[in-house]
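Entry 14. Structure prediction run on the chain below.
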Amino acid sequence: MTAPRTLRFSRDWITRPVFGVVLAAIVIGAIFAGHGYLAVAIAAVALAAAREWHRMVGEGRYGVELVATTATIWLALLAFVLWPRDLTAELILACGTFVHFAIGLSRRSHPLWQAGGVVYLGVPALCVLTLRTIPPHGAWMVMGLFIVVWATDTGALFIGTLVGGPKLAPSLSPNKTWAGTVGGVVAAAVLEAAFIAAIGGSWTMGALFGGLLGVVAHLGDLFESLVKRRFRAKDSGGLIPGHGGVLDRVDSTLAAATALAIAVFAFHLDPLFGARP
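Output returned:
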């Protein structure tokens, strides 16, 4: 038998939920206000996330790369808003990736990692925006995506802190536990089932979908942990009180959004499972 974990009060208990609620309200407002508003919100996140990415992989030299990545993603988002039915946005991302590789080579600053930042941030950004424009219920699809991500992160934090136990991947992230991982997946399944049921869809399919996408969200979190260990960075940043850096908050979303877009456009999945809100 092991003794119960002793929980010590932390200011994060206050700042984390407060800022989490505020950020969630902004995201929800942008989702339902229209894809133009959502594009602006994504652009703001992309700027902050690109700064953290290039500061991390560039090991102190990131000004040129930050400007180039931000410009590439912003132009791609603008192109999608203006011409959503052609491939202009995707071509901009592809060109930006090659430009970044050339910049990395010329500055001898991890060209593959620098160029990878455009793909890592730009592809999910376009995925979210594309999902939002699916008529007539794109906003609800994106809402379901964020419910899974938020439930996974919150469930993992709560259960992991409360239960503790064996580490999931101590070489990558010393704080992640198996209990937290399972707790996050279960939370995603339960809340997504409730969401799908509330809007009139199949709650059983919603639970299965939520659990599977929760696993993908965890993998996205682990990937960012791998990058941080590769470049010996403890955190990606500290912009959001109680949460850390922007990348620390969107790493799960980047993976989950890409996976959902693939499921919808390649395999014709209906992520609302019959619901027509």
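Residues 12-267 form one domain.
Filed with the rest of this week's runs.
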